[in-house]
Amino acid sequence: MLSSLASQTSSQTEPAKLTIRQVLQRSVMLVLQSAPREIINLMLLSLVSGAGPSIALYFGKVVIDEVTRLLSDDLTATALTTLLNNQLLLTAIAITVLLNIAIDSLQPIDTNLVTALRDRVRGSAQEKMIEKVSTFEDIALFEDPKRLNLITLTEEKSLFKLQEITFKLIEILTGTLRLVPSMLLTATIAWWIPLLLLTAFIPTMHCRLKHHDQSWRVEEIQASLSRQMKIYAKVLTEDGYAKEVRLLSLQPILLQRWRDLFEQIFQEMQRVRRSGAIQTMSWSLLSGLGAAVPYVFIILGVLDRRYTFGDLALFTGLILELRNGIFLLVYSFTGLYDVSLGVRPLFELLDLQPQILSGAKPIPSPDRSPQTQTNGIHINNLSFTYPGSEKSILQDINLAIAPGEMIALVGENGAGKTTLAKLLCRLYDPTEGTILWNGRDYRDLKLDELRSQIAVVMQDYARFPATLRENVGWGDLPQVEADPAIEQVLEEAGVAQLIHTLDQGLDTPLGKQLEHGVDLSGGQWQRVAIARSLLRSQAELLVFDEPTAALDPKNEHEIYQIFRAIAQGRMTVVVSHRLALAKLADRIIVLEQGKILEAGTHAQLMENGHRYCEMFTRQASSYVTT
Ligand SMILES: Nc1ncnc2c1ncn2[C@@H]1O[C@H](COP(=O)(O)OP(=O)(O)OP(=O)(O)O)[C@@H](O)[C@H]1O
């Protein structure tokens, strides 16, 4: 029943597949919002570059006809005088020359605008994507392969394709402006010519659309392969893995896996590309033949003296222009379809709705009435299954944390301790049951208010590639410039000396990724993470998940005292395998396979002689023997 509920809730947030029309509409809106000025300027330019060639062709015909007419008359004056005296010829030449100059000289402006447009659109789409992913409250976004594939497709395809959509739209505009005058002029030769040319392109168009569909389906299917490739590339190239990859000589095997995946993706794409190219080529022959018919028709017309030489130059130029226009439009339209398929993941990602939603109610103050049972945190009948998983991790947990109480969660690896800590921070919601804060359901509370009341040191705490000041100050943003407060928490966490040993003190960049960045030892990083949580002095709940894992036993003891001191008057949950730390707690909760096995003070549990006593005795003896 639990699993069906989990799969039901995860399917509720499945993004609805958007139609190509919806993708196009949203892409156009996004492009217009990102770069309105560039779009207007490009449209004006398209007017000139689109309609210009046909107009130039028409005036070219006027020149040829006028020259032919003049040649058929007996010329008495010199050629130059004849030309200078002929108003029509001069005007037609001037317009043709000016149009050609305009078309050529606008090219650099066009390139400039297109580049600016591309950068703006990419920047704006990327910003939307980063904002969405980073503000998505649901941590499960990073644990669901389908959603991870969506992020990969967006990063690797959509952002590029969105830029292309812009160019395709401009191309379509230019193509249409190019097509309309040439179509009208061609129809003056014979009405069936534009129709014939258009019809001849239909199979090519159909074939290209089908090909794009097939290629995109292959890309979608291969998104998970491409994500695997990224994972291997990451392991091979990032510093977090560098030492062990070298020590274990993993490069050949991982590189081979990367190559195999690349080859698999490449071969499949090649197969689709090859079949698409063959089909499109075959149908292009038909459209080529379609263009030959009107060409022959015009030559016959000139031989029959129905058309002038000017007509011959105009009509052959026009047919070429028309064919190019149709060609451009067909390729732009089918390309537009292709890029819309590629942009779709971006909008699907933007449409994703988190399951963790903020409530509307503020954090309630403790109830001052005597004998109240509501204050503090109450976990009632809580069960939990990770989204997309079938396995129940926590079952029927009932636990109350009184104001000011410190509890320790202990148990074997995989017992569910970290999971319970994450639920207390509302990184997930329980699958069944509730967590109450001063009597009010977590889900009803304003999420930012709730989170501001919690200070956390996670098992996999973040090592921000930022300065020491930021690594601590981001624990409580308003205090990021408050040097005395930052210095004090560094002191409490036992790393005050860092300020003096690092070249730039608090403003020293930490982490080797940063220029002039300094790396810290594992224990120093952990203390910086502890200092970060200590800065959040207003927090009512402290959650420490293995906060001393990287500390040496001598210093660990000093940290225990700090925890005890800062836990005074606040609710504290410590997850630890170090039972000496658990011993400090007011109450110890032993978890086993997702259930509470026993609970009580250290003395009570030792007296019970069950699991905790066993674990403590084993650990104490191993400390003695080592
Ligand atoms: N994001 C996740 N998605 C699915 N299953 C998960 C996820 N995180 C943890 N689990 C599973 O939940 C179970 C409990 O994990 P948890 O980290 O809560 O255990 P723990 O008691 O903290 O263990 P440890 O002492 O090793 O830290 C494990 O079986 C683990 O495989």
Q: Would you give an account of this structure?
A:
The protein has 626 residues and is an alpha/beta fold. It has helices at residues 2-12, 20-34, 36-72, 79-85, 87-135, 145-187, 192-221, 223-237, 239-247, 251-303, 309-351, 417-424, 447-452, 468-473, 483-492, 497-501, 522-535, 553-567, 579-582, 602-608, 611-625, and strands spanning 377-385, 392-401, 406-411, 432-437, 440-441, 454-457, 541-545, 571-575, 587-592, 595-600. The strands form two sheets. Strands 6-7-8-3-9-10 form a six-stranded mixed sheet, with helices on both faces. Strands 2-1-4-5 form a four-stranded antiparallel sheet. Strand 9 (587-592) and strand 10 (595-600) form a beta hairpin. Helix 20 crosses helix 21 (611-625). The protein is elongated. Mean pLDDT is 84; it is low at 1-12. Adenosine-5'-triphosphate binds at residues 143, 386, 389, 393, 411, 413-419.
Could you outline the blueprint of secondary structure elements for this entry?
Layout: H1 2-12, H2 20-34, H3 36-72, H4 79-85, H5 87-135, H6 145-187, H7 192-221, H8 223-237, H9 239-247, H10 251-303, H11 309-351, E1 377-385, E2 392-401, E3 406-411, H12 417-424, E4 432-437, E5 440-441, H13 447-452, E6 454-457, H14 468-473, H15 483-492, H16 497-501, H17 522-535, E7 541-545, H18 553-567, E8 571-575, H19 579-582, E9 587-592, E10 595-600, H20 602-608, H21 611-625
Parallel strand pairs: 3-8, 3-9, 6-7, 7-8
Antiparallel strand pairs: 1-2, 1-4, 4-5, 9-10
Adenosine-5'-triphosphate (ATP) binds at residues 143, 386, 389, 393, 411, 413-419.
